[in-house]
Amino acid sequence: MSYAQVRSAVRPPPDAAMTQVADYVAQTDVGSREAFETARFMLLDSLACAALAMDHPECVKHLGPLVPGAELPGGARVPFTSHELDPAQAAYNIGTQIRWLDFNDTWLAAEWGHPSDNLGTILAVADYLGQQAMAQGRAPMTMRDVLGWAIKAHEIQGCYALKNAFNRVGLDHVILVRLASTAVATAMFGGSRDQVVTAISHSWIDNGALRAYRHAPNTGPRKSWAAGDACRRAVIHALNAIKGVVGYPSALTAPTWGFYDVAFDGKPFEFERDFGSYVMENVLFKISFPAEFHAQTAVECAMQLHPLVAPRIARDGVESIARIVIETQQAGLRIIDKTGPLANYADRDHCIQYMVAVPLLFGRLTAQDYTDAVAADPRIDLLRARTTVMENPRFTQEYFDPDKRYIGNSVQVFFNDGASTPKVSIDYPIGHRRRRAEAMPVLMKKFESAIASKLPEIQARTLMTLASSPGGFDAMPITQFMLLFKK
């Protein structure tokens, strides 16, 4: 790179990685029936997660206007509350609700993430625009429209994640929530293709949040509101683009100052496939356990072993266990293999040893099992100390195989008297595409139980009827849908 190149003020054409996203958002019609069907379940599952999060005061304190009194009558509604807010703050609220318990959908590849995080932006913007449309005598968008935007947000985030490991350079995956939500929100506000490109350029110039809050020794609850923060920032970028702010065409490729050189080791992004509807069709659901997804099958293994292990512990004490061996994928080893004291809820739901010990002892793993009260049981840490975690190369290989996308784990328990349990291995969890038929009834039970505890009976019953009628669901205006979740 020469000094003359840096000094040149000639503005280049927009980076291809930005225009490809803009073209997809602005010009592509998604026609996949499977994608829309999966998107309905994804939306219901995400709102179930939001409902369950309302039981946690640490989540609730994030909700509401940025400053007291800054409500916006006729603004976007925040589910399970009475708040009506501007779309940026509503996006933060909804994104935080959905993500709080680490129980919403997941996408695992070179990068990890939770594409339904984008619903914070999509629901807030859709409801805000719908409220504005009704005030002006126009029809709001339908839920079919909302699902279409969600499919596109999933696709953008997930396709970037297939080959580009932001975690390898220390950046958190919510950078892709901000990217996808920025692109989709700009289009939802009526932005042109060029305005979408402008908004995306600002998203990349933001760089990204550090992953420090997801890893020892700093794991903390910011990981539960980081996606909401990305959703809020996306709305701001979209609104600024609509206002006509200047974009930055080589935000990625500019020598020295662009994202590639500053944050990505000088490497351009790689893509495995064109944008379509692949991600929504293959997304992973967290249905049975509120646990970091790389541990889902490990928890399922531990649940199967509970009847063999718990009686021995009850009879001979936890000291009767010599060791526990967990085999996992490389990604699981990097993210959730954790020793030493666990300081908080966020520490515990990102520790595979903890997430195996609890079901071995109790035959369950719920959100309450990450609280201080449960963690105070000394047997959990005794089991953690006896646990070895190692990579199984087959699990890693099948994790990256585009035709499989497995998330395998195995668990085996060895006792001091020389006996051992069988080695239980599970290649993919109930939320995997290959277990959809088994999973969807469980997902609907999760939704029904979650909303029943948070909404009046008539609203909950109406939602369950709606959920069983795809045609009625798709045709419902977003404003009516969000009203059903208003407290």
From TrEMBL:
Signal peptide range: none
Top-level taxon of origin: Bacteria
Provenance organism: Lysobacter auxotrophicus
Annotated ranges, domain MmgE/PrpD N-terminal: 20-271
EC number: 4.2.1.79
The protein's name: 2-methylcitrate dehydratase
Xref: Pfam families: MmgE_PrpD_C, MmgE_PrpD_N
TM region(s), chain numbering: none
Catalytic activity: (2S,3S)-2-methylcitrate = 2-methyl-cis-aconitate + H2O
Keyword Cell inner membrane belongs to the record: no
EC top class, as a word: lyase
SUPFAM superfamilies hit by this protein: 2-methylcitrate dehydratase PrpD
PANTHER family: 2-METHYLCITRATE DEHYDRATASE, 2-METHYLCITRATE DEHYDRATASE-RELATED
Positions of the MmgE/PrpD C-terminal domain: 289-462
Family designation: Belongs to the PrpD family.
Alphabetically ordered keywords of this record: Lyase, Tricarboxylic acid cycle
Pathway assigned in UniProt: Organic acid metabolism; propanoate degradation
